[in-house]
Amino acid sequence: VLGLTEEDVEEAAFSVSMMNVQSYGLAIVKPADGKEAAVTEGLQTFIDGQKAAQENYLADQYEIALSARLETLDDGTVVMVMCEGQDTVFDAIVSAIEAA
């Protein structure tokens, strides 16, 4: 679903909507050595798929997909947040990771 293989990931936690009635996905991924590009590409493909699915279907969900955040933190963790209030959710995830 997220375009990742077992070889791409050292550790991961994720939650996604399996129904195409909402743009929703959260992923926190520690890529395996040399796999950051594969992880980022896989997650970006997921985001792009949600954009395409919602573009002419549900305008509010399309806006959520457009606002998705996909960033690599200083420690190499890749974080994807696609949901309502994505900035607040993203900041909370990053704060929790940094506090650990």
TL;DR of this structure?
The chain is of the alpha+beta class and 100 residues long.
Shape: globular
Largest sheet: 4 strands, antiparallel
The string of secondary-structure elements, in order, is EEHHEEH
- Order of the strands making up the biggest sheet: 1-2-4-3
Description:
This protein is α+β, with helices and mostly antiparallel strands and 100 residues long. The chain has three helices and four strands, in the order E-E-H-H-E-E-H. The chain is globular, with a radius of gyration of 13 Å. Strand 1 (9-16) and strand 2 (25-31) form a beta hairpin. A four-stranded antiparallel sheet has the order 1-2-4-3, sandwiched between helices.
Provide keyphrases for this structure.
single chain; alpha+beta; 4-stranded antiparallel beta sheet; 4 strands; globular
